[in-house]
Amino acid sequence: MKKVVIDKFIPFEGNPFEGVAEIERLAPADINADTVRDADALIVRTRTRCDASLLENSRVGIVATATIGTDHLDFPYLASRGIKTVSAPGCNAPAVAQYVFASIFSMGLGDPGMRLGIVGLGHVGSIVASWALNFGMDVYACDIPRQSREHGWNPAAPLTAGDIPFRSLEEIARKCDAVTFHTPLTRSGDCPTFHLLDRDFLSVAPKALVINSARGPVADTADLIAALRRGRVDNAAMDCWEGEPGISDELLRLSRISTPHIAGYSIEGKKRATAVTFNAVLEYLGSDRRIDPGVALTAPAAVSRQAVTDSYDPLADSIPLKSDPSSFESLRNHYPLRHEVPFKS
Q1: Which of 63, 153, 255, 335 has the fewest CB neighbours in a 10 Å radius?
Q2: 283 is known as an active-site residue
Q3: Is 170 a catalytic residue?
Q4: Which of 195, 261, 272, 332 is an active site residue?
C-alpha cells in the first residue's frame, strides 16, 4: 500500500486515507531522510525543508504544504525530480487580516482617516485593504509585481485590477501612520523582499505601528530595533521573526505585540489548508475521495470593529512568548486555534 507522511501538528479527524494509503504522523523534527524513504507523499508545514537532503533517496512523488508560504520548498530540485508540489494560498488569509486589525485596534489606532500602508496586495493584503476601506481608513497599497502588470487595483475587489493606482514603497514610508507587510520572502529576481523593511524605509518618517505577519526576513531585525530605540517607530507587532525559533530577545522586548508565528492559526484556516493538501494527495494517489472543509472558502467583505476586538486579543497571545522566548516552537505547535472574525451583522 502507498504511504503518506503527515506533520503531526496538521489537524484532521479520522483517517481520510483509509483504504488508499497508510499514514504516519510525525513531529517536524522527525521528518527526515530515513522516515520518508518509503513514503509516496508528504504533507508538511513550514518547519520541514523539502530538498535533496530530505528526498534524494525516497520515492516521494508529491509534497503538499498546508501553508501559504513556500520558501521551505526547493522548487528547482523538486522540479528536477518530477515531484509535484501543492500549497494552500489564501487558506489562512482571513485570520491574518484579523491579526492585523486586532493589533491596530488594541493600540488605540485605526480611526477613520488613518493612513494604512499595505505592502503586498495578494490574498491577505487584499482582505486587509477591503476591511480597512470599510473602517474608513485611507489605504495606500504597494504591490510592485502587480503594478508592473496592472494599471491599479479595484477597491470593490482588491485582488483584481482596477483604477486605484498603486503607491510606491517610498510614498508609503513618507505618508502612512501604520504599515503592514504581506509579501512572500524572495531574495532575488526583480522584486526581492528580503529586508524590505530596512533602515531606508524606517528613517523616512515616524510611524505609529509596523506589523510583520509575512515572513521574518522581510524585516531587518537590527534596523527595526534601532528604529524602535530612536522612536522612529512607536509600536511593532511581530508575528514573523528572523531566525525562528531563535528570535531576537531585544526585538521581543521592544515590540508591543510579540507572537510565535500564529497570525494565521485559525480553526477555519486549518480546515481549508487540510482540505486543499489532503485532496491534492488523494487525487495524486488515484482516489476519487475528497474532503469538504466545512467552512466558508472566502473572507467576509466587511467586518465590524467590535467583532474584531471581540474575536481576538494579540496582546494576550504575547504574554507567554515575552515570558519565555525559548518556548517559541512549543507555543506555535500547541497553539489553541481561534475562530476567525464573524461576518458583519
Answers
A1: 335
A2: no
A3: no
A4: 261
